[in-house]
Amino acid sequence: MKLGIVGLPNVGKSTLFNAITKAGAESANYPFCTIEPNVGVVSVPDERLNVLKEMYDSKKVVPTAIEFYDIAGLVKGASNGEGLGNKFLSHIREVAAIVHVVRCFEDENVVHVDGAVGPLKDIETINIELILSDVEMLDRRILKTQKQLKADKSLMKEFELLERIRKVLEDGQSARTMTFTADEEELVKSLNLLSYKPVIYCANVSEEDVVAGVDNDYVKEVKSFAESENAEAVVICGKVEQEISELDDEDKQAFLEELGLKESGLDKLIRASYHLLDLISFLTAGPQEVRAWTIRRGTKAQQAAGKIHSDIERGFIRAETIAYEDIKTYGTMAAAKEVGKVRLEGKEYIVQDGDVMLFRFNV
């Protein structure tokens, strides 16, 4: 899963990136310090893996992972080449979802590219640039479809859909605010519109605000806007996350407790990412390794097997399946089998989050 971190310059993008990936992307108090999209991979925390490791005495644990792309700061006019321009808009097209970092703190020592903190204005600046880039692409597609219509009238529905999307974009609304039929959605996905990509608005607040646990007025604005777009919103403090990233697991937990926090901002961001993209994890376990595999909710057992290896999908026979909570309760697969908690599922079975699966196959 690839997530692109975007936002205006100096909102805390690279600070957040450094914290969640420990990759050391340059962070400086001036625009465009990120010239190429830094890429970092972060493991998805999953306590279930550690429980299974103890149970199976596994040699190693392999969590699933998320790729974060730290994309350079956009400015007003980027779609026309301002700042670092279309180069960075193209980087956004490569990601599954956008993490839009929004500055929700005051600090006279950190300059704001527009001179003053204003989350909704910042969001609008970025969204308008994405929309303008989409309009430019749609204009080309509409012109092409219009020419093809002369010989193929079946393209009329596509032409009308393109025109409908363009009208919404011209009104300053993102494509993700629209609703589509299943057939229309297939076409919209193929367009790879920037303004249709799922978004998590990441409100970056001061340490005082995150410890207080009360949303400031800036955060309230961001959450309200996210709700209007059916997007996710999380509150983080980049500085706190950077401090956490430098600690081992035991010290990290103590630090969070000292601040009165139940979880890190990274954990909240990952959970929001999974919810936004409708993702779940199934698990495999044995003496060699315990591993988590990420799939979309609604994936069938045979397709889930393909995440491990195409041969397993091709030769799928059945999947021995048990819910994580059941194997945790009974302690071993053998004990769970005795009480009928282990099921034999066929290729049409819809995999559930936390299923522990053993695939039988023949090729």
TrEMBL record:
It comes from Fusibacter ferrireducens. Residues 1-256 form the OBG-type G domain. ATP binds at N10, V11, G12, K13, S14, T15. This is Ribosome-binding ATPase YchF. ATPase that binds to both the 70S ribosome and the 50S ribosomal subunit in a nucleotide-independent manner. Transmembrane segments: none annotated. Keywords: ATP-binding, Magnesium, Metal-binding, Nucleotide-binding. Belongs to the TRAFAC class OBG-HflX-like GTPase superfamily. OBG GTPase family. YchF/OLA1 subfamily. It comes from the Bacteria. InterPro entries: ATPase_YchF/OLA1 (IPR004396), Beta-grasp_dom_sf (IPR012675), G_OBG (IPR031167), GTP-bd (IPR006073), P-loop_NTPase (IPR027417), TGS (IPR004095), TGS-like (IPR012676), TGS-like_dom_sf (IPR023192). NCBIfam families: redox-regulated ATPase YchF. Its cofactor is Mg(2+).
